[in-house]
Sequence to fold (306 residues):
Amino acid sequence: MSYAPVVLQGEEETKGSGVRTASRPGIPASPPKRSRIGDIRMRVVYRGLAVAVAAAAGVAVTLSVVLPPEPDGTARPVAAPPTAALPSASAAAAGSVPSAASASASPVPSAASSSERPTPTPGTSLAPGYTAMEALYADPRVPRLTGKVRRMSLPAPGKRFIRDTRSGIAVPRLSRPWKAYGAAPFSTKQVLPPRRGTKLRGMFVTAPLPIMEQKSPRDTALLAARWTLNHHPQGSRITWLSSQPVAHGWALSYRVTYGGHSSRAAVVIMDGGMAKPGLAFITVPDSQRKYWRDIGRVAAGVRGLG
Fold:
């Protein structure tokens, strides 16, 4: 007696057997079995790949940090902080360079203390950064006025005068061949006749003080003498001849040399009661040397109007 095999609903048929799966109508059959790799979802795969990339990057950073120094044993240069002070030229020449810590801790000298003041320019009454007297003493064209410079013997003043109401002084009217001439830019002006072959000639002028007044009349006269070099040939230099006080002021006489020639000159500074002291200035070139005697008359004859 033979029996037919019994197969439960939903079971698969066995390979090589004649058993077939019985299924109910409307119920799908069970899906076939897949491999384990096919059952992994793609987002799980992507997540694993991201973890692997991050781990690889961490390993690379670790290796770059712990790498040994270069074979030559020298460290890579490190940039100094921007606020660190540079070593001075003297320190660099001596071979001693301060460390970055000590350089940043030490104060940086100011530009005013490390730089020198500019040298006065010849022909100017005041150079930048200098007082008027410092500019005078730094001018190689004007020597120091020492005690060896003596007084000049002054002749008797004349009887004829020219009044300068702007300066508050009166000055001698010099005899011929001196004559009055266009005064501008001065207050009064007397000149000698020009000589053939030269543009230089004797000149005697008055004006309010054209430079800064100093505390002492002597210093003011020194500055005035330096100013008169503007009215002499370029390259002129002063040699002092006399220095002495006068009523309410000071008088200086000096030689001015330029090239192979020279002039005799004098300045008289006098307080005439005006806002500024009055200036009397005379110069005579060596081509008219016989009129050098008039320089003493000027120095002796200046007086105040008050």
The longest strand covers residues 237-246. The chain has a mean pLDDT of 74. Residues 155-300 form a domain with the Protein Transport Mog1p; Chain A fold (CATH 3.40.1000.10).
